[in-house]
Design goal:
The complex is a heterodimer of chains A (about 200) and B (about 350).
Chain A lengths: L16 H4 L2 H14 L24 E3 L14 H5 L5 E7 L12 E9 L8 H5 L5 E3 L14 E2 L1 H4 L15 H7 L9 E2 L4 E2 L5
Antiparallel strand pairs in A: 1-4, 2-3, 3-5, 6-7
Chain B lengths: L1 H36 L15 H11 L10 H17 L7 E6 L2 E5 L7 H22 L3 H31 L6 H7 L6 H4 L1 H14 L11 H4 L9 H26 L8 H7 L7 H26 L7 H30 L5
Antiparallel strand pairs in B: 1-2
The chains are: A alpha+beta (about 200), B mainly alpha (about 350).
C-alpha cells in the first residue's frame, strides 16, 4: 500500500560526476532557501496577535453563577467521577438560612479544587454536570512558578459578577431551549424569599 | 605631528568601533536572516525590529557566572579568547576603507596603515588567531575542548595553503603588489579582479568559510560530537569574546574578499558619476560614497556567509580534509598555472 505520493525508491547507485562536484547540488539548495526569503512568515506574534478560537475551545474552567449571582454547583461530585484525570476534588457544606442568594441549592461546594496540571481539558466534567455549573472557557491557563499554584480553588474558578463569562456558544440551541423548560430545578430563580419555577413557554 | 597622531587615533577608534558594531549587529542580522530563510520572524521584542537585541545579549553575557575550571591553566585559559579577539581585530588595520581625503592640501588615507607586505601580514595574523583557539581548547583541560581545538587548527592550517596559493594567483594578475591599498586602487578603472580570477575567488571564498569556522566547516564546534568544541568550558564574556571574534573575522574576510576581487570602494563608472555630479578628487563626499559602496559589498558578502550557513549541512571531518587537500589544493595550483600562462601571453610576466 502506498501511504504517500512523495515516496521514492532508495537506490545505492554510485555518484555521477556532476553530483560529485557538489556545486549543482549546492546551488539548488541555496536557491531553495533563497526562495523562502520571500515567502509568507508562519509566525503568529502571540501576545499581540491572537488566533481566532472556536466557541467550544476547552480552556480554563469556570464555575457559573446564575442570573442573580448564586453559585450553581451543588457539590454532587458527578464531575469528579466523570473526570478521567481525577483532577477535581471538592468538599460539600449545607446552606444556612439566609444564604439562598449565595448558593442556589441546599448543598454547596465549600471547597472546590481543580488541579490544572492533571486536567487534560477533555470537557467531560462540563458534560457530566447536571446543574449547568461547570464550563470550560477559552481562557488559557496561566503559567506559574510552583506546582501548588496550579491547584485552582474557588477563588479562581467561580465566575465574578463583575466579569461574567458567556458560555452560550458552548450549548446548542436545542439544549438552551430544553433548559428553559419549567420544572427543571436549575431554572428556578430565587427572588429573596422562595424559589420560583421558570416561566412556561 | 600632532595632527597626524590625532588623525591616526581617530581612524583607529573608528575602525575598532566599526568592527565591534558590525560584529554585534551581525549576530542580530544572522538571527534575523536565518529566520527569514526559515519563514520565521526572528528576534523582534527588544526595540524596533529587535534592534536592541545585541545589547541585551551582551548584557546577558556580562552577567553570567564566570567559571574557570580548577584543573585548567588559569593564565592560558584567559589568554585564549583574548588572543583570538586581538588577532581578529588586528586584521582590520590594513583594509583601505575608502578613497583618500584631502583637507588643506594634506592627504589623509582612509586606512589605519598601509604595509607593503599587507597580504603577508594578513595571512600571518590570521594564522596567529589559531593559537587563540588552540590555547583556549588546550587550557580547558577537557577532551571535547581539546579535540575541538585540534580540529580547528588542523582545518585552518590545511585551508590556508589553498588560500595562499589562490592569493598568489591574484598577486600575479595585479602585477606583483602585496599592498591592499594598491590592489584595491588598481581596480579603480577597468574590470575588477573577479573577472580575471573567478576560480581563484571561489577557492578563496571556500577557504574563507573554513578559516572563519563558519558552516559548513564549523567542525570545531560541532555540537552533536563535541558539545561546544573548543569553547565547551568557557562561560560569560570569555565565551562572548570567542563568538564575537568569529563575527569580526567574518566581517574582515568579507571586507578582504570585496577588496581583493570586487574592487572595494570602487564601482563601475565611478569617475563618470563623480564628474557628472561635479565632485573633485579628494573630496570627503567621494570618500563617503566609496565607503558606502564598500560597505554594501561587505554586507552582501556577510549575507552570503549566512545564506551558506543556513543552507548547507556540516561536512564530515574526513570529507573536510579530502576537500582541502585533494580538491582545493590541486585546483588552486591549476588556477595558478592557468594564471601564469594567461598573464605571460598578456605580457605581464617576463622571464
Ligand atoms: S476537563 Fe476533563 S480532565 Fe479536566 S477537570 Fe474536566 S473532566 Fe477532568
Ligand atoms: S460542578 Fe456540577 S457536577 Fe461538579 S459537583 Fe458541581 S454540580 Fe456536581
Amino acid at each position: 500500500m502506498k501511504l504517500t505520493s512523495r515516496s521514492k525508491v532508495v537506490s545505492n547507485k554510485e555518484q555521477s560526476f556532476s553530483e560529485s562536484l557538489y556545486l549543482p547540488g549546492i546551488i539548488k539548495g541555496m536557491s531553495i532557501t533563497l526562495s523562502h526569503l520571500f515567502k509568507r512568515r508562519a509566525t503568529v506574534k502571540y501576545p499581540d496577535e491572537l488566533r481566532p478560537m472556536a466557541g467550544v475551545y476547552r480552556g480554563q474552567h469556570v464555575l457559573k453563577r446564575d442570573d442573580i449571582g448564586a453559585e450553581r454547583c451543588t457539590a454532587c461530585g458527578l464531575c469528579a467521577v466523570a473526570c478521567p484525570a481525577e483532577a477535581i476534588t471538592m468538599e460539600s457544606a449545607e446552606r444556612k438560612k439566609g444564604e439562598e442568594g449565595m448558593y442556589r441549592e441546599e448543598k454547596y461546594a465549600r471547597i472546590y479544587e481543580i488541579n490544572m496540571l492533571r486536567c487534560i481539558f477533555c470537557g467531560l466534567c462540563e458534560e457530566a454536570c447536571p446543574k449547568e455549573a461547570i464550563f470550560l472557557t477559552d481562557k488559557i491557563v496561566d503559567t506559574e512558578y510552583e506546582r501548588e499554584d496550579f491547584i485552582y480553588g474557588k477563588d479562581k474558578l467561580v465566575e465574578k459578577m463583575t466579569a461574567r463569562i458567556d458560555v452560550t456558544k458552548r450549548q446548542t440551541k436545542e439544549v438552551i431551549e430544553f433548559k428553559k423548560l419549567p420544572g427543571l430545578k436549575h431554572n428556578e430563580l430565587f427572588d429573596g424569599k422562595s424559589l420560583n419555577k421558570g416561566k412556561k413557554h | 605631528m600632532i595632527a597626524f597622531l590625532i588623525y591616526k587615533t581617530i581612524i583607529c577608534v573608528c575602525v575598532f568601533g566599526l568592527s565591534l558594531g558590525v560584529a554585534a549587529y551581525s549576530t542580530w542580522w544572522e538571527r534575523k536572516f536565518a529566520s527569514f530563510l526559515q519563514d520565521r520572524v526572528g528576534p523582534d521584542r527588544a526595540g524596533p525590529f529587535g534592534l536592541l537585541q545585541p545589547l541585551a545579549d551582551g548584557g546577558k553575557m556580562f552577567f553570567k557566572e564566570e567559571i574557570i575550571p580548577n584543573v585548567s591553566n588559569r593564565f592560558l585559559f584567559i589568554l585564549g579568547p583574548s588572543l583570538f579577539m586581538i588577532t581578529s581585530l588586528m586584521t582590520g588595520a590594513i583594509i583601505p576603507w575608502s578613497k583618500d581625503v584631502t583637507i588643506g592640501g594634506v592627504v589623509y588615507p582612509m586606512q589605519i596603515t598601509d604595509i607593503n607586505i599587507g597580504i603577508l601580514y594578513l595571512l600571518g595574523v590570521a594564522s596567529i588567531g589559531v593559537y587563540g583557539i588552540m590555547i583556549g581548547g588546550w587550557a580547558s583541560n577537557n577532551k571535547f575542548a581539546l579535540l575541538g581545538a585540534v580540529r580547528a587548527s588542523s582545518q585552518m592550517i590545511s585551508y590556508e595553503i589553498a588560500m595562499g596559493i589562490s592569493v598568489i594567483a591574484l598577486i600575479i594578475t595585479t602585477g606583483g603588489t602585496l599592498s591592499l591599498r594598491e590592489i584595491v586602487a588598481q581596480q579603480d578603472a577597468g574590470l575588477c579582479n573577479f573577472v580575471y580570477q573567478p576560480l581563484g575567488f571561489l577557492i578563496f571564498f571556500i577557504c574563507a568559510l573554513a578559516e572563519t569556522n563558519r558552516a559548513p566547516f564549523d567542525l570545531a564546534e560541532c555540537e552533536s560530537e563535541l558539545v561546544g568544541g573548543y569553547h565547551t568550558e568557557y562561560s560569560s564574556m570569555k565565551l562572548g569574546l570567542f563568538l564575537f571574534a568569529e563575527y569580526i573575522n567574518m566581517f574582515v574576510s568579507s571586507a578582504i574578499m570585496a577588496g581583493f576581487y570586487f574592487g572595494g570602494y570602487n564601482f563601475p563608472f565611478a569617475h563618470e558619476f563623480y564628474n557628472a555630479i561635479g565632485l573633485a578628487e579628494g573630496s570627503w563626499l567621494i570618500s563617503l560614497i566609496g565607503f558606502g559602496c564598500y560597505f554594501t559589498k561587505i554586507f552582501l558578502f556577510i549575507c552570503l556567509f549566512m545564506w551558506v550557513r543556513w543552507t548547507l549541512p556540516r561536512f564530515r571531518y574526513d570529507q573536510l580534509m579530502n576537500l582541502g587537500w585533494k580538491i582545493l589544493l590541486p585546483l588552486s595550483l591549476l588556477n595558478l598555472a592557468i594564471t601564469v600562462v594567461v598573464e605571460y601571453f598578456r605580457g605581464n610576466i617576463h622571464f
